[in-house]
Specification:
The complex is a heterodimer of chains A (427) and B (155). With 427 residues, chain A is mainly beta. Chain A has helices at residues 4-19, 21-26, 50-59, 135-138; strands spanning 30-47, 69-84, 89-100, 103-116, 122-129, 165-177, 180-190, 206-207, 213-225, 228-247, 267-270, 279-282, 284-301, 305-318, 327-339, 341-343, 346-358, 367-373, 376-382, 385-397, 400-411, 415-426. Chain A starts with a helix and ends with a strand. Chain B contains six helices and seven strands; from the N terminus they run H-E-H-E-E-E-H-H-E-H-E-H-E. In chain B, the strands form two sheets. A five-stranded mixed beta sheet of chain B has the order 5-4-6-1-7, with helices on both faces. A two-stranded antiparallel ribbon of chain B has the order 2-3. Chain B starts with a helix and ends with a strand. Classes of the chains: A mainly beta (427), B alpha/beta (155). At the A-B interface, strand 1, strand 2, strand 16, strand 17 and strand 20 of A face helix 1, strand 3 and helix 4 of B.
C-alpha cells in the first residue's frame, strides 16, 4: 500500500465522518461518492508502424498490448469523500482500488484540507491534483467524467508524463466581474518521485532517489460568449531536480537498498531485454536534470456542441552535460469535437477525437524511458503514438454512461484498428 | 468487415447528428417557477443568467455582500418542476446537471446541491440557511412570502 501515513489519516477522517454521518449527511456536510467502469476492447489489423511494433515487442513494457485480441478491462473503483468541517474548512480524500497488470492495488490519490478564506485567496494542504492543464484537474482517466472512451495517456499516472498529484501546498482563487472570471492556482510540493521506487517513469531519462519539490502555476479565463462557456487556460510546472541517476544502457538494471540509495559501482549481468546470451555492462552516472512543462488548453462549451484541445510540452534538461544530448522534449496533444443531442430522450454525444504523443528523440533514434520492475529499473522502449477516435456516449440512466468507440492508430506499435465499448458510472 | 463497421459508425453519427437538441418543454399544470433566497440575503433580484451563474457557482462560490457559501437546493428525482427549472434557468437537462455537479465535486471540492422532497422542505431549508438558493412552484411561494424572498419569477 502506498502512502501509508496519508491512508491512515484518510481512514481516521472516514471513521470520524461515519461517526458523525447522520448529522453531517442531513446537513449536506458529508458526501461519499465514487466512479467505476467496465470495458471490452479489441484490436485488429496490421501495426500502424511495423518498425515501432518490432521494437516494442522486444523492448517495450507490457508488450502484449501490441497484440491482437479481445480484452476485458476493469480499471477498478475510485472512492471519494468530501466533508465540510465548518463554513471555511473542507476536506477531500480519494482512494482507488485498481488492477495493474493483473495485480490488485490500493492507491492513495489525494487527501487534503481546503481552507476557504475568500473568493480571491484560499489554501490547500495535503496531496492534491497537480494543477497542470484542464484534463488532470477535471476529468483524469475516469470514464464517467469523460465523454470519449479511451483514457488519455497524457494524464495517466502510470505513464508519468506529468506529475499527476502533488504533496504540498496550494494557493488558489478567483477574480470575477459580472460573468467574467479569472482563476489561478499556485502549488509547491513533491510531484515527481513521491515514492520513487514504486512508480514507473516511462517519460524520464533519469531517476531521482530523493523526492524533489516542484512549482506549478495555472491561470484560467472564463469568458462569457452569449451565455455559453469559453475557457482558456495556461499552466506551467518546473522541477529543478528531476533526476540524479542515469542508467545508460538499454535494458539496464539498477539495484537499490531498502533506503532507496542506488549503487554507483559498475556491474555487469545478463540483461533480459536483450537477445539471449548477450550481456551488457551497466554504468550509473550522477547527473542533474531539470524539468519544465507547459500545458495550454481551450474549451468552448455550446449547448449543441463542445470543442476542446489541450497540449503538453515537456523539456527535461541535463544541466551538467552528462547525457548524450542536453535536452529531451516531449509533446502531447488531445483534441475533441463533441455534438450534443438526444437519443430516446436521453443525452447522446457523438464525438471525434485525435491524440498524439511525441516522445523525446534520442539522436534521431527511438526513445527509451524507465520502468520499475520490482526493485529494479529497466530502460524500455516508449513509442510515439497518434490515434484517431470516433465514438458515441449515451447517458442512458442517471449517473451511467454507455460508450462505443472505433479507434485507429496512425502511428505507433499498436494494431491499427480497435472497437471498444464500456459502461461507466458514478455513485 | 472492418470497413462495414466503420461505415455503420460514421453513418450513425451523421444521422443522429442531424437531430437538433430540444430540451423538453416545461409544463407542470401551468404553474410558474420561483427562485428563492434567504430573507437576510441582500440580493433582491436576479435575471435568468445571474440565477444560473449563482446556482451553478460558475463565477462565485460565495454571495458577495455577505461572504456566505452559496448552497443550491434541488429536488429529488425528476419532477416536472425540476425539469422546468433545469431547462429554463440552467439551460441543461437534468442528466447534464447531474454530470455538472459530479464534475464540480471532483475537481472543485464543491458539495452537490441538497436534494429535498417538496416545496415545503425547500422553503424551510432556504429560510434556515442564509446562503441557500432554491426553486419552488408559484403556488407554494404565494403562501410563504413571509419566510423566503423571491429573486426570479418565471411564468
Amino acid at each position: 500500500m502506498k502512502n501509508t501515513r496519508l491512508f491512515s489519516l484518510f481512514f481516521l477522517l472516514f471513521c470520524f465522518s461515519c461517526w458523525n454521518s447522520d448529522s453531517m449527511a442531513q446537513s449536506n456536510r458529508l458526501r461519499l461518492s465514487g466512479f467505476s467502469e467496465i470495458g471490452l476492447s479489441s484490436r485488429f489489423g496490421a501495426p500502424a508502424s511495423m518498425e515501432a511494433h518490432e521494437l516494442f515487442e522486444e523492448y517495450g513494457h507490457a508488450a502484449d498490448l501490441a497484440e491482437s485480441g479481445i480484452r476485458l478491462s476493469y480499471p477498478g473503483i475510485a472512492l471519494n469523500m468530501l466533508g465540510e468541517l465548518n463554513e471555511k474548512l473542507y476536506f477531500q480524500g480519494e482512494i482507488s482500488f485498481t488492477i495493474h497488470h493483473s495485480a490488485p492495488t490500493l492507491e492513495f490519490n489525494r487527501l487534503y484540507l481546503d481552507y476557504r478564506i475568500n473568493e480571491k485567496f484560499n489554501l490547500i494542504a495535503g496531496q492534491f491534483l497537480t494543477p497542470i492543464g484542464y484534463l488532470n484537474m477535471n476529468q483524469r482517466i475516469y470514464g464517467y467524467l469523460n465523454y470519449s472512451l479511451k483514457p488519455r495517456d497524457m494524464v495517466n499516472e502510470e505513464y508519468g508524463f506529468i506529475p499527476v498529484t502533488t504533496l504540498g501546498l496550494q494557493a488558489y482563487g478567483r477574480f470575477s466581474y459580472d460573468s467574467w472570471g479569472l482563476n489561478y492556482r499556485l502549488a509547491y510540493g513533491t510531484g515527481r518521485g513521491l515514492t520513487p521506487h514504486h512508480r514507473p517513469f516511462t517519460a524520464t531519462i533519469g531517476h531521482e532517489e530523493n523526492s524533489a519539490p516542484g512549482v506549478t502555476g495555472s491561470l484560467e479565463a472564463l469568458i462569457p460568449t452569449a451565455g455559453y462557456e469559453l475557457k482558456i487556460g495556461m499552466s506551467a510546472y518546473h522541477n529543478p531536480r528531476l533526476a540524479s541517476v542515469y542508467i545508460e544502457e538499454l535494458g539496464g538494471l539498477a539495484e537499490f537498498d531498502d533506503h532507496g540509495h542506488g549503487h554507483e559501482e559498475e556491474h555487469t549481468g545478463e540483461d533480459p531485454a536483450l537477445p539471449e546470451g548477450e550481456e551488457v555492462e551497466e554504468e550509473h552516472h550522477e547527473l542533474r536534470m531539470q524539468e519544465t512543462i507547459f500545458a495550454p488548453y481551450i474549451m468552448f462549451d455550446h449547448n449543441k456542441f463542445q470543442v476542446f484541445a489541450e497540449y503538453h510540452g515537456s523539456r527535461q534538461q541535463d544541466t551538467e552535460g552528462e547525457l548524450p544530448q542536453q535536452s529531451y522534449s516531449y509533446h502531447a496533444l488531445s483534441t475533441q469535437f463533441l455534438y450534443k443531442t438526444q437519443l430516446s430522450g436521453k443525452p447522446f454525444y457523438p464525438y471525434i477525437r485525435y491524440d498524439f504523443a511525441l516522445t523525446p528523440n534520442q539522436d534521431g533514434g527511438p526513445y527509451y524511458g524507465l520502468v520499475q520492475e520490482g526493485e529494479s529499473l529497466l530502460r524500455t522502449y516508449v513509442p510515439n503514438t497518434a490515434e484517431l477516435m470516433i465514438g458515441m456516449a449515451w447517458d442512458v440512466l442517471p449517473f451511467n454512461r454507455l460508450k462505443l468507440e472505433y479507434s485507429r492508430y496512425l502511428d505507433g506499435p499498436f494494431l491499427t484498428s480497435g472497437i471498444n465499448a464500456s459502461t461507466s458510472f458514478a455513485f | 468487415m472492418k470497413k462495414y463497421i466503420l461505415g455503420i459508425l460514421v453513418t450513425a453519427i451523421v444521422v443522429l447528428g442531424l437531430q437538433s437538441f430540444k430540451p423538453a418543454p416545461a409544463s407542470f399544470e401551468g404553474e410558474g417557477i420561483v427562485v428563492i433566497v434567504n430573507k437576510d440575503n441582500p440580493v433582491t433580484e436576479l435575471n435568468n443568467g445571474s440565477a444560473k451563474l449563482y446556482y451553478l457557482r460558475k463565477i462565485k462560490r460565495r454571495w458577495p455582500a455577505i461572504e456566505k457559501t452559496i448552497k443550491p437546493v434541488d429536488r429529488k428525482g425528476s419532477p416536472a418542476l425540476k425539469t422546468a427549472f433545469f431547462t429554463q434557468v440552467l439551460e441543461m437537462t437534468v442528466e447534464a446537471g447531474n454530470n455538472y455537479f459530479t464534475q464540480r465535486q471532483f475537481s472543485n471540492s464543491e458539495m452537490p446541491p441538497v436534494q429535498l422532497d417538496s416545496d415545503a422542505e425547500v422553503i424551510s431549508y432556504v429560510a434556515e440557511n442564509i446562503g441557500a438558493i432554491g426553486y419552488i412552484s408559484k403556488s407554494a411561494y404565494q403562501t410563504s412570502q413571509d419566510k423566503v424572498k423571491a429573486v426570479l419569477i418565471l411564468d
